[in-house]
Predict the structure.
Amino acid sequence: MLKVQDYRPQPFTDFTNPENVAAYQAALEKVRAELVGKHYPLIINGERVDTAERLTSINPCDTSEVIGTTAKATIEDAQRALEGAWEAFETWKAWDMDARARILLKAAAILKRRRLEACALMTLEVGKNYAEADVEVAEAIDFLEYYARSAMKYAGFGAAETTWFEGEENGLLYLPLGVGVSISPWNFPCAIFTGMLAAPLVVGNCVLAKPAEDSGMIAGFMVDILLEAGLPAGVLQFLPGIGSEVGEYLTTHPKTRFITFTGSRAVGLHINEVAAKIQPGQKWIKKVVLELGGKDALIVDETADLDVAVTAATQSAFGFNGQKCSAMSRLIVVDEVYDTVVNAFVERAKSLKVGTGEENAAVTAVVNEESFEKIRQYLALGKQEGQVLLGGEAPGEWGGKKGYYVQPTIIGDVKPEARIAQEEIFGPVVAVLRARDWQDALRIANSTEYGLTGGVCSQDRQRLEQARAEFEVGNLYFNRKITGAIVGVQPFGGYNMSGTDSKAGGPDYLANFLQLKAVTERW
Ligand code: NDP
């Protein structure tokens, strides 16, 4: 019998071992030979459907290189996919929970065998270095295994407890919602894409999956694995396309029952608004699950272990070039140790190697031109709002390769209300803020509208306990980095404008895609 207690997160690969590095490089060669240049069509009702127009994936570390293409769904494709999914739902919803769960487990097993290929593909498509790609594929496997096992608690009549009542049988039944759309970002294009569709699917819903434009290939790779694992036709429809076209069509459509979205605050709030407007023919209130941006802070006080704090800050700020919703974009240091901590942080960040994902550089290129231009504007603003202590430029090339390269940047003495201390930049750019003392630091940390991740480096027990209660974030970390949540271990999701706190990889996540029916029989 499947039990969530049997779930164990995947171990990560040790890239200090030269054998693992060699295996990764061999996988890069294999992917170049077999996947680069590949085209992924749409998948509708189990059939591969091509379109007149295509979306192209470019290597952000070398923009002269095309990695591959996907089809580009039209409104008509989306409509057909929606209708087909409702037909498939009629049978899929009646499958036994364990039979659905087994498909996820088989997909996890296939992905384990193809782990290095998935990693190498992301290195080329979005510029992840080896460790960043490796932990992401581990997370995708974890989502599949964790959700497969957690689904069992929702199976059958009486899955949730009710109170005994004389003369009657009472019980609760969990039922899937129907057909929903899953819209995902490019920054975790394997793990988040997979988790966001696997969760609704395993409990009996059908899903239309729209990946981000920049990362359609790894999404297509994952969909192939899920189909190979046995997903029936129509249950998962693959719809790469433009968010503002096909995404907008699906989120506003009266036949869309739920929307699960991970992405920016602006798009998420827009979806929330349009989904709330009832369309002619719509007979439900759409369920909307939103995971949005962050302006995540790490506080360092005068009692902190300096080495722990500097390591935490460096890993949290510059892992995948700061392109994580959980990335540290504010470092808040109490005045007493400000100079010591900030100097050590700058020195550590100076040693980070910039380069391509393929070379396994610590900091690679940011994902696309739009992102690059947006970060450039913030760099210019940062020069007015603080003192540039490191970096500050976006050269747009590195080692003779044209790409979206931004220098790791640290801007000191930024005021809490400055724009670079309030707005999500989504690049390797840190605003450092000086706090009078611990209480001031906590106040500053809570002074944005976001509330995703946060951290405290301190040896003071009372302060840690105060932060446990008062630091307004969905994921709080003490004396370590603030990124890298593990499925089942640190359920993930934010407060305030960072989302609906649905806690992906958590014990209640699947309930987002279920409705409860209470049934009573009088004996
Ligand atoms: P975007 O909001 O730009 O895009 C996310 C997805 O929404 C993409 O698939 C996009 O499609 C689609 N989209 C765009 N416009 C619409 C629309 N009008 N209707 C429906 N769908 C639409 O985010 P990014 O891809 O740039 O991802 C980065 C953001 O994601 C950051 O803000 C980051 O913090 C957040 N994020 C949050 C996480 C969390 O757990 N809280 C985790 C990871 C990222 P297209 O690609 O075609 O534009």
Observations:
- The chain has a mean pLDDT of 98.
- The first strand starts at residue 38 and ends at 40.
- The pocket of NDP is lined by residues 183-188, 192, 210, 212-213, 242-244, 247-248, 251, 262-264, 267, 270-271, 291-294, 325, 424, 426, 452, 494, 498-499 (CB under 6 Å).
